[in-house]
Amino acid sequence: MSDTGERHFPALLELTLSRFREFYREPGTVFWAFGFPMLLALGLGLAFRERSVPLARVGAEPGDREAVEFVEQLLSAGLVESELLGADEIGAALTSGRLDLVLQSGAEGLVYRFDPERAEGRGARLAVDDALQRLAGRADAFATSDVGMQSRTRYIDFLFPGILGMTLMSSCVWGVGYTLVLARKRRLLKRLAATPMRRTDFLLGVFLSRLLFLGLEVLMFLGFGYLVFDIALRGSVLTVGVVAFAGAAAFSALALVVAARVASVEAANGWLNLITLPMWMLSGIFFSYERFPEALHAPIRLLPLTALNDGLRAVINDGAGFVGVAPELLVMSVWAVGGFLVARWRFVWQ
């Protein structure tokens, strides 16, 4: 190793260790990095836990004898949940979602009242009509059979990697960017500027100190998911670690870009929120970004959080290897390298 390398490596090591000590000596920071993501996953997992398919909620007016008889047939077959309501309550029950379908007798036969904009209403209408037609003796035009298949991916299986990606983004962006701005505001960077320290060493030290917790954070989160929600890791731990490392590098680099010149906490809050909030909405944490118009899919996939979430889901849920997540790794690597170079170019001590 050259004299220059020997001279700067201890500086980089000391900077990394000092940031590491600053992190674990702050209980609140440790909670937000480790405790809060698990509490969030627990709450959402319990709220969206797997349940049996709910029965259609069907109503009728007590005075409508024909409709009540149809409802009783469905109830005796165990096909619906029912409620008898007055004429003035029926409309409110449909619009509020309390009922999915209302049966009424009409001059030309049975009338179905439902909201066609609600999937529950459309489903109830089809299921109830099919059940009543069969109970009345309708014969099918040709024979059919059903084969039940359980979906491999529950909602919690989709949600869990998204929360892990969101946690890595938040802890890196705020843990790196916000802390660096505070150090500039307190004039700590001004003191460091008087030392023979390279900007590269300082920025790398801030970055590496955050990554020291990365492995523990990911392992604890995966273990929590396995024990509480039975989430199996179908890919390798190494692949998950590489994907998480690439994501953390990309977000840390973005945080360094923001903190390279910003001197006030208020401005830092605004810029960091500007970075994170769009990705919270677009990058598929709680629902798939494919719900957005197709023209937006390609730009959304270029966001670092989208690449991280897609990569984590591919490894955890589908067992993908390095080749399978290569596009996502490339996107995150470009953000990481490009962001660090921009941060190094823009960085000022005070």
How would you summarize the topology of this molecule?
Elements: H1 3-24, H2 27-47, E1 56-60, H3 65-76, E2 80-84, H4 87-96, E3 101-106, E4 109-113, H5 119-135, H6 155-185, H7 188-193, H8 199-211, H9 214-229, H10 237-259, H11 265-282, H12 297-301, H13 304-318, H14 326-346
Parallel strand pairs: 1-2, 1-3
Antiparallel strand pairs: 3-4
Helix pairs in contact: 1-8, 2-6, 2-9, 6-9, 6-10, 6-11, 6-13, 8-10, 10-11, 10-13, 10-14, 13-14
Question: Can you characterise this structure?
Answer:
The protein is α/β, with parallel strands linked by helices. Helices cover 66% and strands 6% of the residues. The chain is built from 14 helices and four strands. Strands 2-1-3-4 form a four-stranded mixed β-sheet. α3 (65-76) links the parallel β1 and β2 (80-84).
